[in-house]
Amino acid sequence: MLSLKGEQIYLRALEPKDLDFLYQLENDTAIWEISGTVKPYSKKVLQLYLENAHRDIYDVKQLRLCICNKEDSCVGLIDVFDFDPKNSRAGMGIVIADPDQRNKGIGAEAISLLCDYVFSVLDLHQLYANILEDNKASINLFQKMGFEKIGVKKEWIRTSEGFKNEIMFQKIKNTNVS
């Protein structure tokens, strides 16, 4: 049976109580480069987002889940976006909010749980992730989780330092039955 619970963490839907966490994370300029954010979000806008977070993935084409630790604290977010049921694919992204919580297996466990979910429940054929070329930790994480590098988008993301390349990774559902 599928579970969104792992050894260290579990994934859950967004709740109204997540407003402050979402506000802090979405307004953290250190991650704007990877999230595509270009302006701050108000609590009012985020509250409206939370009020609509219950909508079906087939309707809104995205799903955002909280990554929670055993103490029930939200430590990050994992997203499914560009959900395309016709072609059986979607993009995914992940962020662990506190840099001190990174490189401790939380991201790997969250990606594993999400992959199990999208491949078994949503019956997707593939997932992809776009990662900036200088984000070595994320590149290593996704490769460790079985994602393959399939291309480079040259000078794709504009930053304060200039344009950066973005690498596209893909994981195709394993259909081999043992």
Overall description:
With 178 residues, this protein is an alpha+beta fold. It has a domain of 117 residues: Gcn5-related N-acetyltransferase (GNAT) (Aminopeptidase), CATH 3.40.630.30. It contains six helices and seven strands. A seven-stranded mixed β-sheet has the order 1-2-3-4-5-7-6. Strand 4, helix 5 and strand 5 form a beta-alpha-beta unit. It is globular, with a radius of gyration of 16 Å. The model has no long low-confidence stretch (mean pLDDT 90). InterPro entries: Acyl_CoA_acyltransferase (IPR016181), GNAT_dom (IPR000182). It comes from Flagellimonas nanhaiensis. Keywords: Transferase. This is N-acetyltransferase. GO terms for molecular function: acyltransferase activity, transferring groups other than amino-acyl groups.
